[in-house]
Amino acid sequence: MDQLVSLSFYKKTITTSVNTREYNIKGIYGMNGSGKSGIITSAEILRDLLIDPGYLNNPIAQKNLSAIINKKIGELFIEADYMVKLEEDLLLFRYNVILSKDVSGKYVISHECLSFKQATSKSEVMKMLFEVTGGEIAFLYRTKEQDNFSDIVQNRTMNLLETAAMSALFYEKLYDTAEKNAEVPKGVLWAGLCLLYLFGRKIYVYVDQSDDHRDFVVWKALEGDSYDGREKYKNKIDTVAGDFVAMKQDYLHVLSATGNVVWKLIYEKFEKEVDKLWEFLRIFKSDLLGIEIDKKENRNFWICDLVSVGVQGVQTR
């Protein structure tokens, strides 16, 4: 897709008494091949960029990006607006990021920017919190009282901003240190980076197994090798499997109505993900009372079917 796609799920005029439930997404529909999956995948990529500093260093993620990013323009642009209520303040943030290939052919962050304004303001002008271009900080919000924190951000993210988003680096390298250091003023930049990271943590992407193509990407990574060089082939399998497991935070978000294979050690996490799925589906189907798990044991795994419970207690798969 080489055309910019823009979807709005909020009213342009925002009041102080805004009810965020009115902004729930009701649905995205379209013909097969119209780009619905591309929108979902973009949300997933955005989440991974914001919370995982190792995302772009994972070869599986790189192969995934190569498979989905439009070859004509050679880049992926994602922009998202989100609202945050802080005590009496209602703030609107705008974050955008561009992924493109570097000279080695690897996808990197070529541009990243975060801005904000009062959500109720009619002005389109937004204040910039930070801007990164070509891996270098082009702008960083500063006040005299918080110069120290701005310098820490600059120093701790140096030479890392092409392969990791600012929010992911902030949480990995700055949050704990700054949180324990009472001398570090926690002002606008601090709050903006915290909220951007939390925004990433609040993005949930659920896909049916039939729409998940990471298994295909893994096997493509092994394509061309033969069993003749068994040790070399085994080493490559182990490497690719390790890369795949490194993206395990996505695993529980790939759900199917039937035949979910769940390792017993993570079954409790699977239950929590099903509860989150129910909360999400209730937006569209208010009479959905719950989702039950019908499980059968298979050695170290549970084979799980999901059963929806309606108003009359009718259960359907």
Structural features, described:
With 317 residues, the chain is α+β, with helices and mostly antiparallel strands. 33% of the residues lie in helices and 23% in strands. The protein contains eight helices and nine strands. The chain has helices at 36-51, 59-68, 147-156, 166-180, 188-201, 214-222, 230-245, 267-281, and strands at 75-86, 89-101, 107-118, 127-133, 136-140, 260-263, 290-298, 301-309, 315-316. A five-stranded antiparallel β-sheet has the order 1-2-3-4-5. Strands 6, 7, 8 and 9 form a four-stranded antiparallel β-sheet that branches. β4 (127-133) and β5 (136-140) form a beta hairpin. α2 crosses α6. The chain starts with 35 loop residues before the first helix and ends with a strand. The relative contact order is 0.10.
